[in-house]
Amino acid sequence: MDRFLSDEAAATVPLLAAFDAAAREGHITRAAGLLGVPQSSLSRRLRALEQTVGVPLFQQVGRGVSLTTAGRELHERTRDMVWALDDAVSAVRSNADPDSGLVRFGFPHTLGPVSVPSLLAEFHQDAPKIRLHLVQAHGEALAGMVRDGRLDLAVMIPPPDDLPVTVLGHQRILLHVARTHPLAGRTQVDLAELAPEHFIASPPSYHLRQILDSSCTEAGFTPHVTFEISDLETIRALVGHGLGIAVLPTAETPHPDLVSVPLSGVSDRAIGLATGNHLATAAVARLRGHIVSRASEFIANTAGPAT
Q1: In a domain? residue 300
Q2: What is the rounded CA–CA span in Å between residue 50 and residue 83?
Q3: What is the rounded average pLDDT for all residues in the chain?
Q4: pTM, full prediction
């Protein structure tokens, strides 16, 4: 049996953008500015929506507004639909015009200061009308966002097994020590030599930590982790102060207090470009092609400066 919108739903749909903006901003004037309409027009749309659904959706709080209980329920049920509609319109428009559109692109915390900005700067010169929504996150979070469609593509280290992936190259993992550390002058260190050392590492859920733990187990010892933190720049700063050693990829920006030393017993990590299982728009395909065509240059940038 065919299903049709009720009169109330049909009347509600054109007003949902105004409702979503006001609900998110908590302020009528700011929401009107966000949508580019006069405040009076936005207020009329909100009153029309309240009349349609038959209950108050907002209440005054100081100079702003907040959702009533009914308003919160309506927003929870409709907010994803509003953004899904926005995505659908963006997809249709970008399919028609490969020079415009939106691409949601993710990359890991181990990349960013040099390699990704350089890559995107080149892309922006070639396609200045394509908008980029950027997300920097931990690897499993990126994979989850690609799987459920919140990201169109993402560089991941290592790439997941359940998504379409193009391997761009490999990231070398090195020993990082302070310049005053006895191992700073070595040309190579075997992982087994590090058993007496104190390590600074990321949390156990991070892939770099899993590499450290498994590699040390294979080398016959359990690493003594004295500091545990997720931010890699903080890890490097702690190492530079002589508070421990770390097993990390080389930083993309100079760290004068650090020395990176080649390390045997730890494997390199694959760098992959993952895409979702949904149909890519022309804009997404264009960014993907740009990244793949510049893979060697991109990987060279991830190597960071010599130390």
Answers
A1: no
A2: 21
A3: 87
A4: 0.64
